[in-house]
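Usage example:
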Amino acid sequence: MRPKRETELIYPVARYFMHKGFRWQVTELQFYEYIIDIYGFSRISDLTISVELKIKNWRRAFEQTLVYQLCSDLVLMALPKETVHRVDQGLLKSEGIGLLCVGSNNRCQIIVEPRLSYVMIDTYKRRNIDLLRQERSRAYASR
Amino acid sequence: MPVVDPSVFLRLGSHSEKDYFEKVIPFVDGYIIAANLVESTPLACASLVFRFSGKKKNTPYLLDPMTYVFGAYLDPSINVVRHDLDWIKSDQKRKKKPVRDFKRSYKGLGEVFGGPFAEAMCDNENQNAAISPSDLSSDEVITQVSKTVMDYQLQRIPNIFRDVIEDDPVAAELTEGFPLPLAIIAPYFYIEPSEEASWIDINLRMMKETVSLDPDLPVHGVLCLDHSILLEREKIDKIAQNILQTGIKGIWLWISKLNEDELTGDKEINVESTDKCMKLSAVRYLVETLSNQIEVYNMHGGFFSLVLSKFGMKGISHGVGYGEQKDVVPVIGQAIPIVRYYLPNIHRRLGVPDIERCFHSLGIREPNDFYEQICDCAICRGVVNSSVRQFRLFGEMKPPKSGKQRSTQTPDAARRCRFHFLLTRIRERDWVKKVTLQQIVDSLNSSNQKWGNQPTVQRYCPHLKAWGAVLANED
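Running the assembly step on the lines above writes:
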């Protein structure tokens, strides 16, 4: 069934990146005025990832992801299969933003590979990793 | 059209802004205090006026009578005209019971003004409490209202002192030379579109009547309109001609919901068909028409209005870090706004990361690059002093309070942004004074070329093109 809300994309996208090694994850991470839908960190590769989920408005997602490049190594936008064809892939490629398609069976497929951000500021990345670490400690403590 | 030197008036929003006033007042042309603030904090306001406008500093000031708050208003949340004055009420407690009543400051103001204002305040459950044009239809009421509002501006602040000091002869001497406002503002009401003709008539009559009362000070009026009226050129023309016949010496334009810089999207900009351009053109036309005979100010204006000094706009006013646009009735219940960084090149406020994202492609690597390409005001030099990474201090956030989900801007970051904005505004005013209109238009175009290509900033740039087009239009 076609997803109606962005929150319906969280589970398949989070699971996809979990399998890709981004095992530390948090949803709705605040970065100044922006809210990053999914932020992940892979301890093996020491890479961070930001994902903006959108149902339709990919242009807005594009604007947001450009800013997320300041705090993550890799940045993508994730859209349902039904709207992914509308995206200007050339534009995304020119800025190194990746594109992930979420199929009706919740299977995810990379359409455009993200490139390593050349504008990333290490202070922001490290601060976000610290937040993920704190989040994990809190989760463990509450178990 | 007369080309004039623009002036900047600061509007005091609350006494927490006093610190900004202390530092900036020597560099601005005046300030405005709202009457409701005077009623809620009389002594603090009176001493502020004494301090800033006394013999030593002598800064011109105006006392905004705020009469419009007693009129009907369009509730933006439900898009209905309301007559219950609910927006100046708050939830209060009386004998441990919750009551929704008028805020103390407005109630006080209503009582001081008396007549229809006091009547509006006497029953907090009256659904038709608002003053309507029919309440002001008789000449007697117009005279009474105009006189009370005039006397208020002339006497209220000295009287606050008199009440406190009473028998102290030294202090009594001080009140003798108490600074008077720059002008008397005639009572004014929002020209609510559903009763447009009546409100226009009432406002004009009150301007005329205040003039005929012959105060020793010049009389200014306030033209408080909805932005939609700007698309009706004939109506605007008629209003302007009528204003010129009232005898006032100055007019403060307040175009509700007209945000000078809010123009987004990548649609083609055309002076004759783009809605926003047409509205800005109408403001320019209004300024050109009126400024041949009287002083014209924008009560809530920004850089575009400042540049309209080339067409006769005498000045603008705004708050210490906001208020370059103001709706007559604010939307209540919004989140605490973040004070954004005012990017001088594009004359607009942006989030820190949107600007920081451009540093790489603009080659901003060292503080000197920052000073050259972004801003070199004293605040920016102080904050960005050893690394461009320090720019983030303008957007610094603190962790959410318990029970809250979102982080908020630190008070220090907000302060930096406000001071930077104020210093930049003073520079803008001085720059506009000394350059030609063509140089301003060229500067807007070159800023558009530079920032319009930056992916995180380009959506904030269309106004540059619109402003350039409106200012350069020779019609």
